[in-house]
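User: Here's a protein and a ligand (pyridoxal-5'-phosphate). What would the complex look like?
Assistant: Let me lay out the input and then the predicted complex.
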Amino acid sequence: MTDQDILSICNRAELPSPSFIVHRGLLQNNLDLLGDVQNRSGGKIILALKGFAMFSTFPQIRQTLCGTTASSMAEAQLGFDEFGGEVHTYFVAYRKEEIRQLSQQAHHISINSLSQWLQFKEIALSAENKASYGLRINPEYSEVETAIYNPCRIGTRFGITASQLDGVDLSGIDGLHFHSMCEQNSDTLQRTLEQVEAKFGKYLHQMKWLNMGGGHHITRPDYDVDLLVQLIKHMRETYQLKVYLEPGEAVALNTGFLVASVLDIFQSGDRQLAILDTSASAHMPDVLEMPYRPEIIGGGEANEKKYTYELGGHTCLAGDIIGQWSFDQPLEIGSRLVFTDMAHYSMVKTTTFNGVQLPSIASYFPAEDKIEVSRSYGYEDYKSRLS
Ligand SMILES: *Cc1c(COP(=O)(O)O)cnc(C)c1O
């Protein structure tokens, strides 16, 4: 699959602009790798809906992954209705009615704090409960340097520390859950597990399962899969546990594109601006939040190629700037640009801010060389979120 192949798919008239398009062959490559990890390690991988929730792909993903994990009732419902299989939940805070309902339906329920556990223990221990309960632990070790993505920072909202757990009665608890990584390789997991074992090893012997969260960048080319397999086996065998991973990003990594068109080109101050029918603020908020510079097929750094533009969104936010890119050919009104790696997080984070149209959602099926547009948006989608 060359850049040229992707461009020719994204330039087809049947694909509206703007659109997110997921290449189902690339998605399958990721799933094959995740399936291989499961087979070799005996661990289980579930999809974190927070990162990727394009449910038209679920029948395909379900062939490899056994379930989903949800961080809200809406995500849990999507897991039950559209994915099937196991539904795991971890909410930062549950309402009591939510726990009552989930204890009838969910497979695993991970609780964030001892205070929530005390509130819900009675439901968990009642004869009607069908779910397996776990506690989210805070290993107090994370290699994530960006504060907004570091779940172990001082004052974190996430998880129970080893000292808080000291002396606590764990009857009713079957598992432990930690999530302290972001876009990391298995060497980070190795160092994290050393901390988890040192601090929580004595509890793990009494548990049935361990959920090692997300942030495993398994489908990235330089990821050390052999080490991951070895670490999962080590935890399974040492503590006689079922081991789960719940990546979001790794499932959809490098499988999707955001296709946008140039609406206007003009000079402003010292730069040539191109206004697109997409927006950093409404369609790619991580560009501003993280912040990061996405890749554009055929686009270089500013001034690297002959024609440089500052690409701006079409909202009225002054800072709705995607960044500067250069191209071999000048852009024209109507030119399409293809932003890479936009399947995960971007699609779940879009908003109707400024009333700008949401990107359509599409798939490309390589076997039939076919584009299927599964969703397009209009005025009603904007209006229905307001009253
Ligand atoms: C965000 C999140 C995930 C998924 O993380 P990725 O970086 O997308 O793999 C998994 N588990 C929990 C608890 C999360 O908050």
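Summary: The CA atoms of residues 193 and 231 lie 8 Å apart.
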